[in-house]
UniProtKB/TrEMBL annotation:
Signal peptide: 1-21
Species classification: Bacteria, Pseudomonadati, Bacteroidota, Bacteroidia, Bacteroidales
Protein name: histidine kinase
Enzyme Commission number(s) of this protein: 2.7.13.3
InterPro entries the record matches: His_kinase_dom (IPR005467), HisK_dim/P_dom (IPR003661), HisK_dim/P_sf (IPR036097), Sensor_HK_Regulatory (IPR050736), TPR-like_helical_dom_sf (IPR011990)
Pfam family membership, one: HisKA
Top-level lineage group: Bacteria
Top EC class for this record: transferase
Record organism: Bacteroides intestinalis
Length: 654
């Protein structure tokens, strides 16, 4: 039975239960603080005042209303850093209440502030708290998942406080699922990762849990250093910020209780009593009831060790009403302990009466509610009023059922009409798909033919190169003149083959979108004059080019380098073309359509349009370039003016 009390005490130490403080002046004090804040103008001073108030009152009943006031004022002033701080404190309130859903709402708020405030600590600390709340609801796997996810985020964003909080929550989940060894490894890892930036409450929580695990295992020698560090950290933070003393009361009581257990296990009852007295001195109205109960339970163990049976029984009678109201699952353990104490005392009749009392109360224990709690629930949820409304609800159910059926009929009709509409759309889509399939098949036939032609055009010059190369290498009786001639033929065919392959690759890059055009404003007449002059120089007297235009200056949007290449391909004949050409470059501007028209009369590229595939590919490249800028490109080999190329360009300025 003594071991049962120890386990019960350890369980209660890990599950804080927050209730409203019983201080009669609490509401008056709270109202006076908020009235001061309401009287202040909406400036940063007001936010700083509320921040300090919240920081000093992280305990019920003040933590939630003060945190709410800070958050609302920050929202009203649109001050994101203070909104983040208010949301953090509100999340802490629901962390103490173990409410995962409401806590998750505020965690989402904190996540939305991360990028603006530049820190992940607040968000990750409270996300880790969701894991602890889930663990308290026995949702172990979900709690472990959230803790590990938080740990991963903390490591990614280098948040030490988020990391320690995640380790703490993961260890809590392991503890609840009776995986003590794994929990201890996680806690020790968190301890090793402490830095000067680690928040005190995270340090204390980790140290407390490590001491708890070692204490449960009976390893007092291992527990002692961590308990000492916990005590030292608490003393330091209270001495540095005495105005926050009440924020740390629960943890200070927890530390004293652990000291009591430590000294009792070592048989040092005087030291144990000293720490019991220290714990009792901390029992003020703002302390959570569970810590008050922990002090009473450790006192029971003390009386058991010192065989003070009457004091033990009296204390159980004092504690029982509170346990019955708030900790029904603990009630049977306490009553059994009382009966065992009576037997140790020699009061067998009293023990029998105690056991009878326990059996009589078993029904209420099964329901986990005392009569007082049932009355509270009835008042909170207005059960009497709900019963009066029951008949009204029943009457409206028939109307709602009729409306539901009518709505269902309308929806069925709409569904029928919609399916008919979809059927028509599907029929149209099927026709379009069939047409597209036919076009795709035609395109495939064209591609196959083009592939065949390209293979032939590549194979012909390649065969020439290979054939003459074999003659040169294998024949030892060739005249020097023949060798020179064969070498020249190899060079010409290799160059033609290289130009052809380069043209194909260039067209492929254009069609695949790998080549990008620059869109820049250019003065087109200047480009044309330069292109004509360049062609005359390259032609070496074989080209007579005349520029025929009524435009002095005109801006267009184009790629200057590509436009120059276009002109060069139209004006300059191939290297092996020794013919002379009379070329007219005619440029006209249509004001109504806003289009500049270029007509290249006598161009060598139009004359040799069908002579070889390289020329055809050059036309495709030119057309692709002009189409990209919104123009058209036409080739006419037989006209009364001669072979010509016409292309247009949209105007972009005067």
């Amino acid at each position: 039975m003594k071991h049962t009390i120890i386990i019960l005490l350890c369980f209660l130490c890990g599950h804080a239960y927050t209730l409203q403080a019983e201080d009669a002046n609490a509401q008056q004090y709270q109202d006076s603080i908020l009235k001061v804040a309401q009287a202040m103008p909406s400036t940063s001073d007001k936010l700083e005042y509320l921040r300090d108030i919240v920081y000093k009152h992280q305990y019920a009943p003040y933590n939630k209303p003060f945190s709410t006031a800070l958050y609302r004022e920050a929202c009203a002033q649109k001050n994101v850093p203070y909104e983040n701080l208010g949301a953090y404190y509100l999340a802490a309130c629901y962390d103490k209440l173990h409410e995962p859903d409401t806590l998750a709402y505020w965690v989402d708020k904190l996540k939305s502030y991360v990028t603006e405030v530049g820190t992940y600590d607040y968000y990750l600390e409270q996300k880790a708290a969701i894991s602890r709340a889930l663990a308290s609801k026995r949702q172990i796997e979900k709690a472990i998942y959230v803790a590990k996810e938080t740990l991963q985020e903390s490591l990614e964003h280098h948040s030490n406080n988020g990391e320690i909080a995640a380790y703490n929550s993961l260890a809590c989940a392991y503890n609840v699922s009776s995986r003590g060894d794994e929990a201890l490894k996680i806690l020790l890892k968190a301890y090793q990762n402490f830095t000067p930036q680690t928040k005190p409450f995270l340090r204390i929580d980790i140290l407390s849990r490590i001491a708890q695990v070692y204490g449960n295992a009976g390893q007092d020698s291992l527990k002692r250093p961590y308990l000492a560090q916990m005590d030292e950290t608490l003393r330091d933070v209270v001495s540095r910020e005495p105005e926050t003393r009440k924020n740390w009361s629960n943890l200070r009581i927890d530390c004293e209780v652990k000291h009591v257990l430590h000294f009792m296990n070592r048989g040092k009852m005087a030291e144990a009593q000293e720490h019991i007295d220290k714990a009792k001195a901390l029992l003020e109205d703002h302390v959570d009831p569970v810590f008050w109960l922990n002090v009473q339970l450790v006192q029971l163990q003390y009386y058991s060790r010192t065989k003070e049976y009457d004091k033990s029984i009296a204390l159980i009678d004092e504690v029982t009403p509170i346990v019955l109201n708030h900790y029904v699952s603990t009630f049977a353990t306490l009553i059994n302990y009382k009966a065992s104490t009576q037997i140790d005392k020699g009061d067998v009749d009293g023990a029998i009466e105690t056991r009878r009392y326990l059996i009589a109360a078993q029904d209420s224990l099964d329901n986990a509610f005392s009569a007082n709690q049932l009355q509270q629930v009835k008042e909170i949820y207005h059960i009497d009023e709900l019963l009066l409304e029951k008949q009204k609800i029943k009457d409206t159910n028939y109307k709602q059922g009729f409306l539901f059926l009518m709505t269902l009929l309308v929806l069925m009709l709409l569904f029928y009409l919609y399916t008919r509409y979809l059927s028509r759309k599907i029929a149209v889509a099927e026709k379009v798909t069939a047409d597209a399939a036919m076009q795709a098949e035609a395109d495939n036939v064209t591609k196959d033919r083009l592939q065949s032609e390209i293979s032939h055009d590549i194979r012909t010059p390649l065969n020439v190169v290979v054939g003459f190369a074999e003659l040169l290498t294998e024949s030892k009786e060739l005249a020097p003149e023949a060798k020179v001639e064969y070498g020249k033929m190899i060079q010409e065919n290799a160059e033609n083959l290289l130009k052809y392959v380069n043209s194909i690759l260039e067209l492929s890059r254009l069609e695949s979108g790998k080549t990008k055009y620059k869109h820049e404003g250019c003065e087109v007449m200047s480009l044309c004059r330069k292109g004509v002059e360049f062609a005359r120089q390259v032609g070496n007297g074989r080209l007579a080019i005349r520029l025929d235009t009524n435009i002095q200056s005109q801006m267009i949007c184009t790629d200057e380098n590509w436009f120059s290449t276009l002109l060069s391909s139209l004006l300059v004949p191939a290297e092996n073309d020794k013919n002379s050409y009379n070329i007219v470059v005619r440029i006209r501007y249509d004001k109504e359509k806003g289009i500049v028209t270029f007509k290249i009369i006598g161009t060598p590229l139009a004359k040799s349009r069908f002579e070889n595939k390289t020329t055809l590919i050059r036309h495709e490249i030119n057309a692709h370039f002009i189409h990209a800028f919104g123009g058209i490109y036409k080739v006419q080999s037989d006209t009364h003016e001669g072979p010509l190329v016409i292309f247009t360009w949209p105007k972009t300025g005067d």
